[in-house]
Every structure is written in structure tokens, then in C-alpha cells.
Amino acid sequence: MKRVLVNGAGGFIGGHLVKRLKAEGCWVRGVDIKRHEYVTPPADEFIVGDLRDPRFVESVVDGVEDVYQLAADMGGAGYIFTGEHDAVVMHNSATINLNTLESAVKAGVKRIFYSSSACIYPEYNQMDPDNPKCSEESAYPAAPDSEYGWEKLFSERLYLSYMRNYGIQVRVARFHNIFGIEGTWTGGREKAPAALCRKVAEAPEGGTIEIWGDGKQTRSFLYIDECLEAVRRLVESDFTGPVNIGSEEMVSINQLARMIMEIADKRVTIRNIPGPTGVRGRNSDNKLIQQRLGWAPSKPLRDGLEKTYRWISAQVEAHKHEPAAAAH
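The chain above was modelled as a monomer; its predicted structure follows.
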């Protein structure tokens, strides 16, 4: 039975990854600074601790073959693009990656997966919302639009350096807006699909929701199950990456909101307001992953949105009926 460590198991993607690895027959140790907010991932061990502490990291990499490093200080546009959290985002995430690599090499870990981000791509290639360029080789000359993106790019290089110098096998994926059930949907760190599902669920028929920017900024969104299939294929392959894991079904944020309204069968008006938006356009370029791993998303965006909306709508309903004190 393969022994695997998932850093960030208390988070959205990490929690789903634990389930997937258990279903495949792995022994899984999950680690995070907090427990999962919505479910209890079926890890064989779940250890709460701080991956910024090198001694703690040494203790959790002990005795595992593979490490999945998903732990990071992150959130949606309201957290990443305001500039108010830059120092803490860079410090926390870089420290976690430095500790994880150093301890993994010392402990003789065979393979380590690192989740990078589409935020590493240069802003200058993402000014046109209809024609963004996000092929893997376009990452340089580097010019990410956020410090979160700069840290991810530095960490990609860090992982590849450790592979060259110490022989540890590394796999690097650049995630493009992964979404789904059992993820953050309120509180300021949620991503666009969850935030919009919440806003539509909370809005009365004929009400109004607010969207940051003019709503014409474009993105693609990939459902969590699709993401995990790509991750597992990458890890079991002989391909290091970096490689995009995302969808090529690009929509504007206003279009995304309207799709959610259709799913909810609710007429709601969009009011576009000033706010942090990130780049004008971003879409996954899947040529390389198709070529090397034979992977492409199997279902359209709407399928994942339907599941996500149902789950978030149920959360919103449940919160309405909580006593006022418990709601905080």
C-alpha cells in the first residue's frame, strides 16, 4: 500500500484529493493548519499543524513515498489582488515550499507534486479578454499580475532546482480556477464561481447582485473531479511539467453569473461595480497536456456549476436557519 502525504488536506482541493487517493487504495496522511470546514476527509491520519515550522514538516514527511504539496496562503480576487496581503502570502507560501522540499529530500521521499497556478502567466499576454495567451512556454519573460503569482513562479523554479540537484522526482501543474462542492463560498477568500453561486442563491427573484469590474473579464473554470484526474495522470507519468490543468471553455464573469441564474431558474440583475479583477483574460491552453497525457476535460462547465450551485444553495439555506449568534 503506497503511503502518501497531502499537505493542505484541510482545504478544498486537498480534501477532495484525500478522497481520491483513498479510493485508489493509498494510505494517506493529511496535514493542514486547520481541519476541513465542510467534511472530514477520510485520511488514515489527519494532523493539524503549521507547515511553516521545519520541525513539524520533518515529522510529517517521515515514512511516505509521495507528497502532494497543495498548502498555500491564498484566496479569491478579494484576497489576492488588493495588495494588502502580499507580504504574508509570499512569506507563508514560500516558507511552506522551502520546508517541504528540504524535509522531503532528507527523508528520502520519492516523488513530490506541486500545485502552481495560472497566476504565473505574464499580464502582458492577458490584456485582451478574447485572446489571452497561456501556453506553458509563454511564462517568460515573467510578469505576473500579483505577488501570489510571483511566489508560485519562484516555487516552480525551486522544485525543479531540487529535482536537478538532489534527484527527487517532481511534478508541477498550473491550476486554472478549480471549483466545486465543499469549498470556501463565503468570508472573502472564495473564488468567483462560489461567490456568484452564493450571491444568486441569496438574491430574491428580481433582485440585484454586484460583480467587480465591467464583467467582461474572461476566465475558464475546471470542476474538481476533472482536476484530480489530470493530477493523478501527471503524477503517474514520466512528465515533470510545468503543465496547465484547466478548461478551454472561456466565459466572461457576467456570462458565468447568467449561467448560474439559469441553473437557479432565477431572474436577477447584474450591477457591475469597481473592485479587484486580476487580468482581463485568461484561458487554459491544453495542447501540451493533451499531447503528453492524453487528457482533456470530459464535461462542460455547466455540469460542474449545477452541482456546485446545488451544494452552495443548500449551505445558504442552512445558514439562514442558524441562530444569529452561531452565524458568526
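The radius of gyration is 19 Å.
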